[in-house]
Write the structure tokens for this entry.
Amino acid sequence: MRRAIATVASLLIAVIIIIVALIFLRAWRIPFFQVEILGMSHSAVHWIGWIGAMYIAIATPIYPIIKRKYSHFIERTLSIHVTGNLLGVLLVSIHFAHQVTRPLSSYPDLGTGIVLYVAMIMLSATGFILVSGIGLKFLKQIRFLHPAFAITFYTVIVMHILEDLIIPSLLT
């Protein structure tokens, strides 16, 4: 079962790389348009990133809880954990690639966004290493780093939300 999960993960990672490359090459882009949700107006690409990040933020802690309390569901839960989070990474990667390829006249302040993206990529990479069994020699270190990157992800996402949503609204 783990081999199948690792294969699906590898395919999803390849899809993420291809889509991000197409965005960087400007061969594929989501048109810019505003979407209002819950009284907040942002671009569609911004909402795509939000959906991906929120999925990762909500789904990530569910796996260890189920793993400990309902161990007979571990393989199915691991499959959902890996696949769902990589789809979240895809959505966040689409958002990030669109942000960093914006024209200089409207280039964003990447600030905590770039740190958040790196933390998410490192979280995904260590998770892939655990699932695929590539780093069995370094299993103890990877098992430490994976939750450490999760904590980093949560810390930075709070700072990112404060930086981009709450602080600017307080200043106006």
